[in-house]
Design goal:
- By secondary structure, this protein is mainly α.
- The protein has a domain at 25-80.
- Helix content is 64%, strand content 0%.
- It contains 2 helices and no strands.
- The protein has helices spanning 23-48, 55-80.
- Helix 1 (23-48) packs antiparallel against helix 2.
- The chain is elongated.
Amino acid sequence: MTAPEDVAVEPAEMAAPDPVASPGSRMERRLRISGLLIIAGMVVEGGTLLALDRAVGFLTFASLGGVLIVVGVLYYLRSLV
């Protein structure tokens, strides 16, 4: 039996595991997407604060911004299951 210090480790054996194969990477990707959807909705809603004096600003605020945030939250909840 060889001692542990006698065993040579090849650089290829020390490589990091494949990120696609790890089960956490899929959840991390889903969480990242849901976060980006929520941030995009907040940016849209923040941008429409300047144009709220017009009807189009409110419609954009309520429809596009709200939909992005709701989809982001629902995708976040779905990624936890």
